[in-house]
Amino acid sequence: MQSVLPELVALLSDVVPRLARIIVFIAVGVFAANVAVAFGLIRYVAGLAGWLTRPANLPDEVGTAILTTAASTTAGYATLAEYRESGLLDDRATLVAVTINTFFGFVQHVFTFYIPVLIPILGTTTGVVYVSARAGIALAITVTGVLAGGLLLSERNVDRSALADVDASGPDADDRTRRERVRDAAEKSRSTLRRIVPRLAAVYTLVIALVTYYDVEGLTSAAEPITGVLGLPGAAVPVIAVYTLDTVAGAVTLAGTEAGVFTTRTAVASLLIGGILSFAVSTFRRSIPFQYGIWGAEFGTKVIAVNTALKIVFISLTVALLLAPVW
Fold first, then answer.
1. Does the keyword Transmembrane helix apply (predicted)?
2. Which of 282, 223, 234, 294 is nearest to 261 (CA)?
3. What is the DSSP letter of 262?
4. Secondary structure (3-state) at 19
5. Contact 89, 145 (CB under 8 A)
């Protein structure tokens, strides 16, 4: 017991300051993000949506749903579902609108998760490059939707007479006072921190202990032939495996590796590969319940298939670009 206690004290003396610093950054970032959302910052970004609907041969009113998605994914999808059910959009037009929605759904997570949570864990350079890569992927999918609408949609896919039967006025005006908005932002921040911090503390401590007391390189050496083909270090295997199951835990695993093991490119590529593999988990955990609840099983399956296929294609292209030996 006496021999274990000094090691435990040494481990905690290493973990606690780093963990405290990360938690402070996360707490400040999450609160700032929720305040920005409460005061409508995201709506200014989402205002660009109207410029995308006309080249895609979609009614301007569809921009309302895209705007709503930036503030609430559920509300945005529900608005599109109403447009489809009313007959304003047929299935093909709805799939195009869902695809265009991708970047604006991502915008919300930039402010509420990627910037305040992931960047403090990954560090500024790796974090910014990773978030930028994910933003580029989301934007590429949105642009693909615009191009697909321009090529595949016409007046036959849109029944503008159905507008009389739907509410296209957009989200209700927010009549909360400034104090109420800040208070609501603080409450949402507390809820987020209660969910993230205990898991982050446990995983971070476990990862540091593993790196400190075990031969991680020896544990991952068997995967060297696979990772070597991609130009990734063997340490990428546990990062990818953990990220597949949990985004925050995967980021912590990467952050806990010894300095110099990963370059910025290989670190970001490892996280993106983990993102590809995580689709299998997230589809059953989140996508099926959510999409089936919004659209029903038949059309919900189509939405999941289109979303997943496009993400896999563009993430794979991004990984290939990151690992290309020409730069």
1. yes
2. 234
3. S
4. helix
5. no
